[in-house]
Specification:
This protein is an alpha+beta fold. It has one domain: Alpha-Beta Plaits, CATH 3.30.70. A four-stranded antiparallel β-sheet has the order 2-3-1-4. It is globular, with a radius of gyration of 13 Å. The model has no long low-confidence stretch (mean pLDDT about 95).
C-alpha cells in the first residue's frame, strides 16, 4: 500500500530560501535513484505564516521502501547539508489511505 510522508522542516532564522535551494538540488541529483527505490515523487511548500518553515509532502510505494532509503548511510551523508540549515530536528509523519 502506498504511503504519504509529511515532513516539517524549520530552517535557521532567515535561511528558508537557502534550505529550499539545497533541497531542490538534492532532489534533482537523487530523484532518479529515489524513484528506482520506491519514491513516487513529492513537493515542497512554504508555510504561509512562518517565514522559516517548509513542508515536504512525498509519496512512496511502501513504508518499507521509504524506511530502506532513510536507513541507508548514503542518505544520511546526502542529507548533511540540509540538516546543517535546520533550527532543530525535522518531524516526519507517515500516513496511508483510510
Amino acid at each position: 500500500m502506498s504511503i504519504r510522508v509529511i515532513v516539517e522542516l524549520k530552517a535557521a532564522p532567515g535561511r528558508r530560501d537557502e534550505l529550499k535551494a539545497v533541497l531542490q538540488t538534492l532532489l534533482a541529483d537523487l530523484g532518479p535513484a529515489l524513484k528506482e527505490k520506491g519514491s513516487l515523487g513529492g513537493g515542497f511548500y512554504e508555510v504561509v505564516d512562518d517565514p522559516d518553515a517548509l513542508v515536504e509532502i512525498a509519496d512512496w510505494e511502501t513504508a518499507a521502501s521509504r524506511d530502506a532509503v532513510m536507513s541507508d548511510p548514503a542518505t544520511a551523508q546526502a542529507m548533511a547539508p540540509v540538516l546543517a540549515l535546520l533550527a532543530g530536528p525535522f518531524k516526519a509523519t507517515v500516513v496511508q489511505p483510510a
